[in-house]
Amino acid sequence: MPLPGDLWRAALDAPVLCLPLGLTPVSAGFPSPAEDYEAKRLDINDFLVRNPVSTFFFPVKGDSMQGAEIFDGDILVVDRSVTPFHGHIVVAFVNGERLVKRLYRRGGRVALVAENPAYPVLELAEGNELEIWGVVVGKFKRLPA
Predict the structure, then answer these.
(1) Secondary structure in 3-state letters for 75-99
(2) DSSP annotation of 63
(3) Nearest to 11 by CA among 72, 53, 43
(4) For residue 101, what is the enclosing H or E element?
(5) Which residues, 6+ apart, have CB-to-CB distance to 31 below 8 Å?
């Protein structure tokens, strides 16, 4: 299957770009006055792209995966080299339509499940064409600032 035209492929020889990484996680509860800064560095490519040859980026359109913290406008990191298993979030083609959903595969039943109750489970029956294109391994998100 040809690559979709609206995706980006991970650079094979992306330059290392190490950015400061705090020593302790950011508290989402009470602040920590003992925070030390910039002791380590993080390369975003190294963190999100495990296999550059098989990694692609897809923009998200829609709200069916909000329960998985995937929102309209996010950029998904999709790795085609990861074997899709039950429970993975995948990019799939169903009857030619590209979707991001959670893969359900148990007891001979295959379905793609949205993470928003407003969307029905997509049961895969005989005659449906399904291609699991890749497994979502990360995402990018910009916040208004």
Answers:
(1) EEEEECCCCCCCCCEEEEEECCEEE
(2) S
(3) 53
(4) strand 97-106
(5) none
pLDDT tens-place values along the chain, 145 residues long? 556 666 777 777 777 766 665 566 666 776 656 555 556 777 888 888 888 889 999 999 999 999 999 999 999 999 999 999 999 999 999 988 899 999 999 998 999 999 999 999 999 888 888 999 999 999 989 888 8
Going by their DSSP bridges, the two strands 109-113 and 75-79 should be labelled as unpaired
Active site residues: 64, 101
Distance, first Cα to last Cα, the chain? 39
Q: What is the DSSP letter of 14?
A: P
The per-residue b/e assignment along 68-103, b for 16 or more CB within 10 angstroms, e otherwise, is: bebeeebbbbbbeebebeeebbbbbebeeeebbbbb
Say how far apart CA 1 and CA 21 lie, in whole Å: 39
Q: Give the whole-angstrom CA distance, residue 65 versus residue 117.
A: 10
